[in-house]
Write a structure and sequence with these properties.
Blueprint: E1 2-5, E2 10-13, H1 26-29, H2 38-46, H3 54-65, H4 70-80, H5 84-93, E3 105-110, H6 113-117, H7 120-131, E4 144-149, E5 161-163, E6 166-168, H8 173-181
Length: about 180
Amino acid sequence: MCRFDESTNRVAAAYYAKDDPGNPSLADTVRPAALENDKIESIIAKYEGKPGALIHVLMEVQSENHWLPKEILSAISDRLNVPLSRVMQVASFYKTFSLTPKGRHRIHVCNGTSCHLRGAGELLNSVQELVGVKAGEVDADARFSLETGCCLGSCTLGPEMIVDGEHHGRLSSDRAEEVLKNYA
């Protein structure tokens, strides 16, 4: 079994010794920093016992924590009286929710046909070098996460990059560096 350690931003392996009564359960020994966040606690407390508020809670927690760890989903399930399977179903259905760690600044580089023809490959390579991660990864400080998409909806602006919801079009490698300096 593996878990994500938020304090070091690494995945750590753990073993489960079900037959060892002296071995505390993983739930007793692993408590992510996110569960100790007062803002997240107040979000969950605000909606406690209100199963109809599930999406609102998930959106607010996602906004605060940038992703939804299993431990937080379990806490939401318990406090809102919603089965964990339903919480997981909702969290995994909507693209806005992330079950994997994301950086504070989310970068999307379009690699659709129009952007590709206008140099999206070079833009992606440049962004990867600037932030130090490949597409699908998060940097060690959880400052940046980099993703690619087939179309970001502004084909005439290609190659395009979106940073934290802000569109930046007709980007060269030099302009991408200027844009990313604002988020460092």
